[in-house]
Amino acid sequence: MDSPRKILVVDDRINALKVLMAILADEGYEVLTATSGEEALDQYHSHPDLDVVLADLKMPAMNGLDLFRRMSYESDAPPFVIMTAHATARSAVEALKQGVADYLFKPLDYEELSIVLDKAIRQRRMSRELATLRRRVEAEGSFHGIIGTSPVMAKVFDLVRTVGPTDASVLIHGETGTGKELLARALHAESPRTTGPLVCINCAALTESLLEGELFGYVKGAFTGAAGDKKGRLELADGGTLFLDEIGHMSLALQAKLLRFLQERTFEPVGGNTPRRVDVRLLAATNQDLKQQIEKGKFLGDLVYRIEVIGLDLPPLRQRGEDIPLLVEYFVDRMSQRYSKPVLGVSSRAMQALMEHPWPGNVRQLENVVARAVILSKGQRLGLEDFSDLLGEEEAAESPDGGIISGLPEEGATIKDMERELIEKTLAQCGGNKSQAAKRLGISRKGLYEKLERYGLAESQD
Ligand SMILES: Nc1ncnc2c1ncn2[C@@H]1O[C@H](COP(=O)(O)OP(=O)(O)OP(=O)(O)O)[C@@H](O)[C@H]1O
Predict the structure, then answer these.
(1) Does any ligand 1 atom lie closer than 6 A to the CB of residue 182?
(2) Response regulatory domain: from which residue to which, for each copy (predicted)?
(3) Any domain includes 1
(4) What is the whole-number distance in angstroms between the Cα of residue 392 and the centre of ligand 1?
(5) Do residues 315 and 148 make contact, with C-beta atoms less than 8 angstroms apart?
(6) Number of H helices, E strands in the chain
């Protein structure tokens, strides 16, 4: 059986403390009490396993907010709920800004008290779980920055660990956006060449003559405009690794020149006739079926044997749907930092829809979709409506997202949560126009301003 939840109640009014103690004990809490901030700190130090603290704001010597600050210096402090009089709504907002989990107005509504405490405890559990998940991603879910814990990705990582340290050429197969370049970087990082350079070139991005010059370099006067000698990427990769992306797009003439290099380990720059020797490991990637290209006479069979000593298949994202939640969390974190938007996560319905999407553009598409949703989102959690471009307006509308307003409220949502979200959503729908939003909400403009202030939304809306 679960052990009872432990609460510390802090109030300098003994009678109020007694009432709360009785109510909370009735609710199954193990209740500890303190009549001052100092006493509360002592209790906390003797009981570091507290699940939640409920403290009055107004107390002599150390007030509730001071107590919160003192406690929050300690690592993993319990969630803190503050009780305050209606007349001091401003201090409630201030307390929220400082990081308390929630506040309650006095006289207390005991039903609300129970919901708020429950929610604070649950949120803490969730944030702990999220922190564990993040640590897991760091510890085992990420391999050289490649996110994935699915069995297919575990196999890929194993193979990289095995072939990475060798000098074998590797050909990576995979649809566009599956992470082929990331994998090439991981292979380089796992090799002794990691102290040397990793040089990448996309064979589909340049015309044949430009690619030849880029790859092999040229000497002064090799062609009009070649005003001086230029080292090619092959030479720049000396002592390291050269990654040829989209190798299937290379012309037959260039393939032949590359094949010669792989056989002899020497090459000549464009316009030059003195062979140069370099020590380079070759990695390549393609999203084409090279066997078919060979049959069509578009690719040299001999070159494939040379570049595909080891073949590595990177599965499309739709075959590793179980990696999507980790990838989404990872991209939400990165994008919210990059664009300074405090987005905390994705609703479970939206996550489900993302997991079921076929992702023709694979991880790159997922990354772009999350970035867009984070940039455009108005709330702290991404819901189905934030992905309506991707999932289609209809799907998003037919299955209204969890949120609190559409569909059923989330478990543990309080009336305050619902009001706050309703205001946020209405404002977003009205493009931030407060008069319009107030009209839709059926309240006065002044009333709306008061609520924005109370929920700490005033700044973000101005
Ligand atoms: N497993 C992953 N974890 C984290 N990020 C990933 C993962 N896979 C791909 N990405 C990200 O997705 C984007 C595309 O990856 P990458 O360029 O490696 O794909 P690619 O297969 O080489 O694409 P293309 O075939 O178009 O060249 C990059 O921003 C990369 O960081």
Answers:
(1) yes
(2) 6-121
(3) no
(4) 24
(5) no
(6) 21, 18
